[in-house]
Amino acid sequence: MNDFIRFLRRFARPYIGTLALSVFFNLLNGLMTVFSFAFIIPILQVIFGLQREEYHFIPWTSHDLVHTITNNFYYFTGHVIQTQGESKALAFLGGIFVIMTFVKVMTGYMSEYFTIPMRNGVVRDIRNTMYAKILSLPIGYFSNEKKGDIMSRMSGDVTEVEASVMSSLYALFRYPILIIIYLATMIALSWRLTLFVFILLPVMGWVMGTVGKKLKAQGLRTMQIGGQILSTIEESLGGLRIIKAFNAEKQMDTRFRNETQSYVKSANAMLRRQSLAHPMSEFLGTIAVMVVLWFGGTLILSGTSTIDAASFIFYMTIFYSIINPAKDLSKTGYAVSKGMAALARIDKILDADNPIKDPAHPEPLPVDLQNTPAIEFKDVSFKYDDGDRIVLDNINLKVPKGHTVAIVGQSGSGKSTLVDLIPRFYDVTKGSVKVKGCDVRDVKVTDLRGLMGNVNQEAILFNDTFRNNIAFGNENATMEEVVRAAKIANAHDFIMATPEGYDTLLGDRGCRLSGGERQRISIARSILKNPDILILDEATSALDNESERLVQEALDRLMSDRTTIVIAHRLSTIVNADMICVMKDGKIIETGTHSDLLALDGQYARLHALSS
Fold first, then answer.
1. What distance lies between CA 244 and its chain's CA centroid?
2. 319 pLDDT exceeds 80?
3. CA distance 541 to 524
């Protein structure tokens, strides 16, 4: 219950108005239910002759309003019996009962009517909050998390919250109100009987609560296994070529079957406990009714009870009416326990810390560099949060404005990590990275990244049109600007050869394009952005010779008069760089031009000889 209350405080505040209306109509519904059941007493007492007392009209100005209403109701009922007969009196009471029932069902409908917008709105808000959080988290977060598990939390766990918690909102607000109203009525009828009932209820609540706690733990385990299954599916789809190449279909099939079997075992245990809720509550409720019937009947038969037989029947009707809300509330409690387990997994994302934060007082980036380097690494060291290995060790490097600096080295030497520090995908462990003379930690992240364009080895495209992929991140771009960028990137001709030109969909991750075409669309995107600083991460390493030629022409146009950092795999693409930095084991061991480094006959010369 504490978890549920915290959940409402976090997500239900925007819907406090509809929540208040739902509570209001639930109150009306509970009162109308009690008044409807109250007709049992006059029907038994007057119609069937259990009550022979004569009633006289009392003026409505009497101070005891409850007694006046009760007395005058019996008076008018007796008058109808005397003047119209018992059959018409019964029809009169039945008509009133029908009217009250109509009001009761309409108030019940209105209470649910105002719950629905909150139910669907909260689920939408959770999804939106999770997606925004995922977009805001640093890249390092996803290095430690499985994509499939994150997808499971966004889809399966949010769906579980919707199915378990949000679908239970109506019951959670309705049934406690009904139970309170019924208990208040029971106290008014006989406090002694109700005190006896209060002794029974905690026992029932303790038994149901114990099962609910076990259900929450089992639900969390089941959802964790479900996340692992989704992660295996995502890995299999992404690595299908390797699976087939190594004849590993049977191995992966066995792994997947073991995971699904574990899920079935966990889900069976969870659903069996959940299925126990209804029979357990019904059995305990029947025991309670029989015990109260025995206790109350004994009081009436002994003549020590303060209520008569008709009122006791009304009392038992009200008490039995508590059983269904109590049963449904217990089932709802199990569902909420299951949903809270899903929310705990969602909160692992929502509560994740983002170390890449804007400073409290950000500095503006200067427009004119003058003699200040465009990029400067000063005594930079770096290691990942989850490791002890130094990835970058005391890096010092200055990149003048408009110059092209190439970073080369063997795999694992720290090239990509070095350039990832410039747009603050990670923060340095020691030292500082400066852009235009400002420490990147002292400026707004959006301002910093607004200066930069990226072209990576794997061109990241979206299942959208050519136009929207080129204009990605630049919503105000005109069609003329998009076409101009595509022409500079050598992409216009193949775009126009497609059925719908710039409005043609690219497919999932640009699957309808070749590698060279995808790369040229990525370049066109950076051309349209017109960044001050360009980062190229092995942009041509995965292309054939013809595609590389077209892409390199586009890159040369993009790099013109622009500060550029190039991570190079093919050394032939960087021979004209203003400076080449050779990295090994997280250190820069050589710097100079292509000819200088060849003359040095060091690491670069050996790499060049291997690539020739």
1. 35
2. no
3. 18
530 φ, ψ (degrees, to nearest 5): 55, 60
Q: Kindly state the tokens that stand for 346.
A: 């969602």
**Hey, which residues does 451 pair with through a beta bridge?**
none
Query: Starting at the edge strand that comes first in sequence, how are the strands of the sheet with 375-382 ordered?
Result: 392-399, 375-382, 430-435, 438-439
Which pairs with CB-CB distance under 8 Å and at least 24 residues apart come from 542-545?
A: 542/457, 542/458, 542/515, 543/515, 543/516, 543/519, 544/515, 544/516
Q: CA 250 from chain center: how many Å?
A: 35
b or e along 119-141 (b: 16 or more beta carbons within 10 Å of the residue's beta carbon)? bebbbeebbeebeebbeebbebb
* Cα three-residue angle 129-113-3, rounded to 5 degrees: 45
DSSP class of residue 305 equals -
Cα 230 from Cα 345, distance rounded (Å): 15
One-letter identity of residue 297: G
With beta carbons less than 8 A apart as the criterion, state whether 156 and 228 touch. no
Find out whether 23 and 178 touch, Cβ atoms under 8 Å: no
Residues 556/558/564/570 CA torsion (nearest 10 deg): -40
Closest-CA residue to 562 (of 402, 448, 435, 376)? 402
Q: Which residues contact 55 (CB under 8 A, 6 or more apart)?
A: 71, 72, 74, 75, 78
Average pLDDT, the chain: 79
* CA pair distance 25, 30, nearest whole angstrom: 9
Provide, rounded to the nearest whole percent, the portion of the chain with pLDDT above 70.
81
**Which residues, other chains included, contact 121 with Cβ-Cβ below 8 Å and sequence gap of 6+?**
14, 15
User: Nearest CA to 526 among 564, 567, 498?
Assistant: 564
Which H or E run contains 219? helix 191-238
pLDDT tens-digit series, residues 472-515: 888 788 999 999 888 888 888 889 998 899 999 887 777 778 87
Measured over the CA atoms of residue 47, residue 51, residue 52 and residue 57, the dihedral's sign is negative
Q: Is the pLDDT of residue 538 over 80?
A: no
Tokens encoding 608: 């060049």
Contact criterion met (CB below 8 Å) for 182 and 194: no
- How many residues are there in the chain? 612
Is-contact 233 226, C-beta < 8 A?
A: no
Name the E strands within 4-156: none
Residue 395 one-letter amino acid: I
Q: What would the two tokens of residue 69 be?
A: 């209403």
User: What are residue 396's phi and psi, to 5 degrees?
Assistant: -130, 120
How many beta carbons lie within 10 A of that of residue 411, not counting itself? 7
Q: Say how far apart CA 325 and CA 342 lie, in whole Å.
A: 25
257 three-state secondary structure = helix
> What would the two tokens of residue 165 be?
């918690």
Q: pLDDT tens digits, residue range 362-414?
A: 888 887 767 788 999 999 999 887 667 889 999 999 999 889 999 998 888 88
Which residues are CB-neighbours of 512 under 8 A, at least 6 positions away? 505, 506
